[in-house]
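Narrative of accomplishments. A recurring question from our advisory board has been how the design workflow behaves on a single, concrete structure rather than in aggregate. To address it, we present the structure tokens for one chain from the evaluation set, followed by the sequence designed for it. No filtering or post-editing was applied between the two.
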């Protein structure tokens, strides 16, 4: 893996892998076991840059990434985003594992499932209160602080 230096406020630097891992499919298209296996494969390949967002994985990507990085957070770099809110729980969240299993058996259902999921997120959420809440929730889910110390 190739790395570049990433400069932090206060003068510290860290090596950043030139290849990052996009966390959009985590806990969305694939379940917990496959999501954790993908994160482990990325880490084993030398990737230390992970890109996630509040809306990824129906709101579960940040939490899974935070759990995965526990104990090794200082050597990893996380980028998260805001502006699209994940869907709010409900019955669809509870049947997601069943839908994933059905899609594995009947791949033709994937198109229908994506169409249903597309309308679940709420975009254009840039009010100060929403941004603050998204930021604080993201830090809590990722089990981290804003800057390395």
């Amino acid at each position: 893996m190739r790395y570049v230096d990433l400069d932090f406020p206060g003068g510290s630097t860290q090596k950043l892998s030139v290849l990052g891992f996009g966390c959009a499919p985590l806990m969305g298209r694939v379940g917990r076991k496959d999501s954790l296996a993908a994160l482990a494969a990325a880490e084993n390949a030398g990737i230390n840059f992970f890109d996630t967002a509040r809306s990824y994985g129906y709101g579960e990507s940040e939490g899974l990434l935070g759990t995965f990085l526990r104990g090794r957070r200082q050597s990893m770099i996380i980028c998260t985003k805001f502006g699209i809110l994940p869907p709010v729980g409900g019955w669809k969240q509870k049947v997601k594992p069943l839908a994933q299993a059905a899609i594995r058996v009947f791949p033709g259902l994937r198109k229908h499932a994506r169409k249903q999921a597309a309308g679940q997120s709420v975009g254009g959420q840039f009010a100060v209160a929403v941004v603050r809440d998204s930021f604080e929730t993201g830090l809590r889910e990722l089990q981290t602080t804003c800057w390395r110390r």
